[in-house]
Design goal:
The complex is a heterodimer of chains A (421) and B (326). With 421 residues, chain A is mainly alpha-helical. Chain A is built from 16 helices and four strands. Chain A folds into two domains: 247 residues, no CATH class; 153 residues, D-Maltodextrin-Binding Protein, domain 2 (3-Layer(aba) Sandwich), CATH 3.40.190.10. Chain A is 62% helix and 5% strand. In chain A, strands 2-1-3-4 form a four-stranded mixed sheet, sandwiched between helices. In chain A, β1, α3 and β2 form a beta-alpha-beta unit. By secondary structure, chain B is of the alpha/beta class. Chain B has two domains: 231 residues, P-loop containing nucleotide triphosphate hydrolases (Rossmann fold); 68 residues, Alpha-Beta Plaits. Helix content of chain B is 33%, strand content 28%. Chain B contains eleven helices and 14 strands. In chain B, the strands form three sheets. In chain B, strands 6-7-8-3-9-10 form a six-stranded mixed sheet, sandwiched between helices. Chain B has a four-stranded antiparallel sheet with strand order 2-1-4-5, covered by helices on one side. In chain B, α3 crosses α4 and α5 runs parallel beside α6. The longest helix of chain B is centred in the middle third of the chain and has 16 residues. The chains are: A mainly alpha (421), B alpha/beta (326). At the A-B interface, α1 and α10 of A face α2 and α3 of B.
């Protein structure tokens, strides 16, 4: 069929065109790769990884026999060695404070924790005061900060237990309750347990690791790189649509379009074939970019069926918009201005939600503004799918995209028919 | 089709707003002949070609190509003609073979045998492409990208595309513009060969010598009208026995030109950049008078050429202007 011959000819010419290969395939992957390597592999499984901190710990605390050999120092050591904290800290017991500090100085550890003698005793002494020393590598910030935060929360719990014990010691006798060491210890322990139970339990409550997206649901957390890849793909898909449709202007100027019109091939077949090529090239672009980004960057594109719907709608919308835009242009000189300025501006506006995803509070206007351009609707559809949405979640957006496509396509066809009448 | 007329142009008009590009043009092209439209740039030749190729709709009038109306049966007209446009219209990022294959498909050629007007049936599109590559002398370069071709090679391929479907009429719009003499010679020989094989050729040009060499009939055009039509001999008779003298003078002098215009025996003078063309009764008598006037005016005549009456002289006689490459 002649319409397919025209489409295949255009596609062949595009695949030989360095501009298409670069801006259709190369640049989207390059841009996403830059972000991927900048974030160090971020977003593959949606999680933010904190580097493990090496901690040298010295426990100089002595158990308090009066309170059943209670040892706050030993509690702290055991707590820091729990499995839940093993990703954050690698604990090594040092023989003494000096060697612990030396390990930090020699950069064999990031932090040295020195639990003083008398820590446990100070818990039960109303006037008792003591301090846990933390000696850190000054070049590190995140790791020591986390260690400090965890230890501080533990110490706060101890302090709370001490206060609870003191209050009980003062108040219970007024109620005729005899308070001994065992009761005080029991009160302290119950307070500690209650304090820990305020969060989700155990070490999990002391540090909540989240990605910059701010979303708690790690099952459906969208990787940063994944969204960037989606944004780049949409941005350049619309470019491909306009550039492919722009070959109509190129052929008009080179004379091959007029020559085509001298052949016994209907004008509708010639233009139809060119339009088919526009759709097909964007489809090829998506078909290449999506799998490659999945393999290289670990991008999770979402469930297959809603993804297929969103991708198909993107192909149709980008192609129709390209045909529409080119139908308004006079010649290839104007197309240069349009590609460089107009398409860039519209594309950036449409995918701007990618740049605001780290911002905690985004104005509703900023969230809605991208929807004034077709790229915004495409980005919305992709985002819904990549955030775990199903077919029903994305259907309305896809419907809007298809409606816009129809409008753009009909206007474009009308303008071209008028031009070549 | 009326008798043996391949093309019948009937009172064609074409306006672009207030610009009358073609005004009441009529002529017939006999089947199997080479017919030239001769005229300067802007005469309306390309506009007529565009209408015959069904690219432009006439404002008024009609034309029949192999019996098919350009207004009512454009597809049939397009199937019967092959058009060689003035500007090279090729896909430069495709090879010669790929170009021919694509354009062949646009003319309806496919892999299998096809219906032809002649009992001759040529094989598949692929074989026809081989034939055309041979005819235009590009067989060795068939896989090369057109962007790497010379201007002459591109012109030959440009012509080859029009030959693919063995059209009954080939329309060539100034195919030799801007190419080297060897390539031009090659194209002119190709035109004669096509015609020898029975193809009717409608050829537009502003080169008088091409029209003279190739054509059975010539229509001379100026400002959208056919100002003269006929065979070479018939047209030359318009200027009668006038001789044409081409002169080059050392410095353009309005005074000497004025004197020459008043000289007995001089009918017409055109001057441009020191080159003058005169139509005179008898060059042997008039030439001494011209030299005398030039000497008196202090102007040197640096070259003289006397020619038999030709189409350029006819154009000069009819329009008062030279048929020059603008």
């Amino acid at each position: 069929m002649k319409i397919i011959d025209v489409a295949l000819k255009d596609m062949l010419r595009s695949f030989r065109n360095m501009f298409f290969l670069m801006f259709g395939l190369g640049v989207p992957l390059l841009m996403s790769g830059i972000f991927y390597f900048a974030f160090g592999g971020l977003g593959g499984d949606g999680g933010f990884e904190v580097p493990q901190t090496r901690v040298q710990i010295v426990n100089l605390d002595e158990p308090v026999a009066e309170y059943g050999d209670f040892s706050a120092g030993q509690m702290l050591v055991e707590f820091l060695q729990t499995e839940e904290l093993s990703d954050l800290m690698a604990i090594t017991k040092a023989p003494d404070a000096a060697s612990a500090r030396a390990a930090v100085d020699d950069q064999e550890a990031g932090v040295a924790l020195i639990i003083p003698a008398g820590l446990s005793a100070s818990v039960f002494d109303p006037a008792g005061e003591t301090a846990i020393e933390m000696y850190q590598d000054p070049t590190l910030t995140l790791g020591p900060g986390i260690v400090k935060s965890i230890v501080s929360q533990f110490v706060d719990t101890l302090a709370g237990s001490k206060i609870a014990a003191n209050v009980a010691h003062e108040r219970l006798p007024e109620q005729g309750v005899t308070v001994d060491a065992a009761i005080l210890q029991e009160i302290a322990m119950q307070y500690s347990n209650w304090s820990f139970s305020l969060g989700e339990g155990g070490a999990d409550a002391l540090l909540d690791v989240r990605s910059p997206l701010g979303k708690k649901d790690t099952d459906q957390m969208v990787g940063i790189v994944g969204l960037i890849m989606a944004g780049m793909m949409i941005f350049y898909a619309f470019f491909t649509g306009a550039a492919s449709a722009g070959t109509i202007l190129q052929e008009e100027e080179s004379g091959t379009l007029a020559r085509l019109f001298t052949t016994p091939t209907p004008q509708s077949t010639i233009l139809g074939g060119k339009f088919i090529a526009v759709f097909a090239l964007i489809a090829v672009q998506l078909a290449v970019l999506m799998p490659i980004s999945s393999v290289i960057f670990g991008t999770d594109w979402g469930a297959p069926l809603p993804l297929a719907l969103a991708a198909l709608a993107l192909v149709i919308l980008a192609a129709s918009f390209g045909i529409f835009i080119v139908s308004l242009l006079k010649d290839t000189r104007q197309s240069g201005i349009v590609y460089g300025g107009v398409m860039t501006a519209l594309g950036l506006l449409g995918i701007s939600s990618v740049f605001t995803m780290n911002v905690p509070y985004v104005s509703p206007i900023v969230e809605t503004l991208p929807l004034i351009v077709p790229q915004g609707w495409a980005m919305r559809a992709m985002r819904l799918v990549m955030e775990g949405g199903g077919v029903s979640d994305v259907l309305l957006t896809v419907g809007v995209m298809l409606a816009l496509s129809l409008v753009f396509f009909l206007i474009g066809v009308f303008m071209f028919k008028k031009r070549f009448a | 089709m009326n008798n043996n007329k391949a093309i019948q142009v009937q009172d064609l008009h074409k306006n672009f707003g207030d610009v009358y590009a073609v005004q009441g043009v009529s002529f017939d092209v006999q089947a199997g002949e080479i017919f030239s439209l001769l005229g300067p740039n802007g005469a309306g030749k390309t506009t007529i070609i565009s209408m015959l190729a069904c690219l432009l709709e006439p404002t008024q009038g009609d034309a029949l190509v192999m019996g098919h109306s350009i207004l009512r049966e454009p597809m049939a007209v397009k199937q019967a003609i092959g058009v060689v446009p003035q500007e090279i219209a090729l896909y430069e990022d495709l090879s010669a073979r790929e170009n021919l294959t694509f354009w062949g498909k646009m003319y309806g050629l496919r892999g299998g045998p096809l219906k032809q007007r002649e009992p001759l049936r040529f094989p598949s599109l692929s074989d026809r492409v081989d034939e055309v590559l041979e005819v235009v002398g590009l067989k060795d370069r068939q896989k090369g990208r057109v962007s790497k071709f010379s201007g002459g090679m591109k012109r030959r391929l440009n012509i080859g595309i029009a030959l693919l479907h063995r059209p009954e009429v080939i329309i060539m719009d100034e195919p030799t513009v801007g190419i080297d003499p060897q390539s031009r010679r090659n194209i002119l020989d190709n035109v004669k060969e096509m015609n020898r094989q029975g193809t009717t050729v409608l050829y537009t040009t502003h080169y008088m010598e091409e029209a003279q060499e190739l054509s059975d009939h010539v229509a001379i055009m100026d400002h959208g009208k056919v100002i003269a039509y006929g065979t070479h001999d018939e047209l030359v008779k318009i200027v009668g026995e006038l001789d044409r003298i081409d002169l080059t003078i050392s410095a353009e002098s309005a005074q000497v030109i004025e004197q020459w215009q008043a000289t007995e025996g001089v009918h017409q003078i055109t001057a441009e950049d020191g080159e003058l063309t005169l139509l005179v009764d008898d060059s042997n008598i008039v030439l001494p008078r011209l030299f005398e006037s030039a000497t008196q005016a202090g102007v040197r005549i640096t070259s003289v050429e006397i020619q038999e009456p030709n189409l350029e002289a006819v154009f000069l006689h009819l329009t008062g202007r030279a048929l020059r490459d603008e």
